[in-house]
């Protein structure tokens, strides 16, 4: 009997985290069978399992089920284990019988006790406030009190787009805190996007329920970038007829919103909008207009060179102008 006890203790200390495992012994013609073959139980929930010890080799009381928790009942050669609240992280079940030769035939069952994270949060590592385009930042997903951590998958998201999947490289049966990080390089298209992380316990096929999922709060991103002109560059000279309306478009995008400063020809009034409009152009409006667009990230400029011509003096292609009696005429 003492030898049987030593063997049972040895099995409990070397319990394998696989599905039902039977010890190999050539004298064993059969092994105990657990139903179900594996258990997945939330910490604190009830659990039960049955073990059919043997079909033909059992003798008298030379069989049983070894476990540190719960209650074991016997019905013929079937052992029934139940527990009202499973709170022992190192729970094991060993079902056995002894042969006539004094050998012991045993099976164990895989028991996964899990606990979804108590909390999941997301933040930036060593950074607060706005971000700048094309610079690298590190997202951090902090997971509190989860088990088993080796079954946890963490996914980082930007909006509905998955950015990466990470798993822990440590193995613990009991709840632990774990931190996962992911590097990102935001662009202007990501301004206003929301970053978040999702944790999922992948517990394997023994459980019929969906994997427990816990998500973090949403972390809004503010991405700053320098001004960029909406309109293409202008030709070297913009020719306009006296009296026509002139529009000079310097519209830009940027974050924060850019400001505009215009450098105008001599004696022209100052202006600070994105589009400069002169309803009726005169010769006094000729010259160079420089638009400077700025924000806290950068500055761009756009130049406009304006040439004003009289309505009667526009030169048509292939023509030259001759003045007769104060009138302008086009001649070949």
Automatic annotation (TrEMBL):
Instruction: Read off the Pfam families from this record.
Output: ICAM_N, Ig_3
GO process terms (BP): cell adhesion
Q: Which InterPro entries does this one have?
A: ICAM_N, ICAM_VCAM, Ig-like_dom, Ig-like_dom_sf, Ig-like_fold, Ig_sub, Ig_sub2
- What is the top-level taxon of the source organism? Eukaryota
Which Gene Ontology molecular-function terms are recorded? integrin binding
- What SMART domains is this protein classified in? IG (SM00409), IGc2 (SM00408)
Q: Which residues form the Ig-like domain?
A: 117-215, 227-307
Keyword annotations for this protein?
A: Signal
Q: Where is the signal peptide?
A: 1-23
Please give the name of this protein. Answer: Ig-like domain-containing protein
Q: Which organism is it from?
A: Oreochromis niloticus
The opening ranks of the lineage are:
Eukaryota, Metazoa, Chordata, Craniata, Vertebrata
